[in-house]
Design brief:
The chain is mainly alpha-helical. The chain has one domain (17-103). Helix content is 75%, strand content 0%. The chain has three helices and no strands. The protein has helices at 8-11, 19-53, 64-103.
């Protein structure tokens, strides 16, 4: 695992010069990054739930307990997916808010 803690897509955007274009570029990069996380977390939730459901639960419950537990555990990844969706929406709002408050558009 790399110790580099920069998010390269966002770290390359400098807030110098034309702030309108810099904020637009940052907003777009953040939106794309958040959407990628959203799709990744969605796939991870589905895959993790399917893997956990394949585990054998209590024999008298015919595996229903494993399915309930898998759904409960996978819900955490779905919540993270919802947060990534919110991040994508806030990325768009960032540029709109700048234009509204500073440029009057």
């Amino acid at each position: 695992m790399s110790r580099d803690r920069n998010i390269d897509e966002l770290a390359t955007v400098q807030f110098t010069g034309s702030l309108t274009s810099a904020f637009h570029l940052y907003s777009e990069e953040l939106f794309v990054l958040a959407r990628r996380w959203q799709f990744e977390l969605d796939m991870a939730a589905v895959d993790a739930q399917a893997a956990m459901e394949s585990l054998h639960g209590h024999p008298l419950l015919f595996g229903l307990d494993a399915k309930l537990k898998a759904r409960r555990v996978a819900k955490r990844l779905r919540r993270a997916q919802n947060l990534a969706h919110g991040l994508a929406e806030e990325a768009r709002q960032f540029e709109r808010s700048y234009r509204h408050h500073f440029l009057g558009r």
